[in-house]
Write a structure and sequence with these properties.
mainly alpha, binds iron/sulfur cluster, 4FE4S_WBL, WhiB family transcriptional regulator, elongated
């Protein structure tokens, strides 16, 4: 999947996306794909009838992005690809917002901030993968065994010929004997 939007005029020359930060892969329905016009705010002009048409469109587009499941990764992609996001709303940002954010990233992470962010993402993915495949330690295995031993198992059925009589059974026998002695039991 790429960040291109159906219906949004594409740049006249081919601009390759920066593959260090790929556009997030998702099966979710994205509003910018189903309603691209909503995000092309530069195409919306204020009129006498509606002097705040663009402002209203911007609010709508930003609201749509705020509920998007991939907004965080979309923002990274949009910032890493200025040539492909010269216009429109991407991840609830305007062109001016994105320019400002890129300046802040350069100040914090240096000119190659895309490389730094891509490396951070790679390390994060690696850590997540490692957390899924690391085998349990000896201590973890020992603890798991202890836990299993502590789980009470179902007792074996009472064997009257092999095991001592329990206090409850003794009491029950006494009650039966007393009944027999009193002549109440047949
Ligand atoms: S955050 Fe906005 S621009 Fe980005 S994919 Fe989602 S709806 Fe589209």
């Amino acid at each position: 999947m790429s960040g291109n939007r159906t219906g949004v005029p594409q740049p006249p020359t081919f601009i390759a996306a920066d593959d260090r930060i790929p556009f997030p892969d998702t099966d979710q329905v994205l509003r910018c794909r189903t309603s691209p016009d909503l995000f092309a705010i530069e195409d919306i002009h204020n009129t006498d009838k509606d002097p705040r048409a663009r402002e209203k469109a911007l609010v709508k587009a930003k609201h749509a992005c705020s509920g998007c499941p991939i907004v965080k990764d979309c923002l990274k992609w949009a910032l890493a690809n200025p040539g492909l996001t010269k216009t429109g709303v991407w991840a609830a940002t305007t062109k001016r917002d994105r320019t400002q954010l890129r300046k802040q990233l350069v100040a914090r992470l240096g000119e190659d901030w895309v490389g730094v962010v891509a490396e951070q993402d790679r390390l994060q993915r690696e850590r997540a993968r490692a957390a899924r495949v690391v085998p349990p330690t000896v201590r973890e295995l020992a603890l798991a065994r202890l836990e299993l031993e502590a789980i009470p198992t179902r007792p074996a059925p009472y064997n009257r010929w092999k095991e001592p009589i329990t206090p409850a059974q003794a009491a029950s026998n006494l009650r039966v004997l007393a009944l027999v002695a009193s002549g109440k039991a047949a």
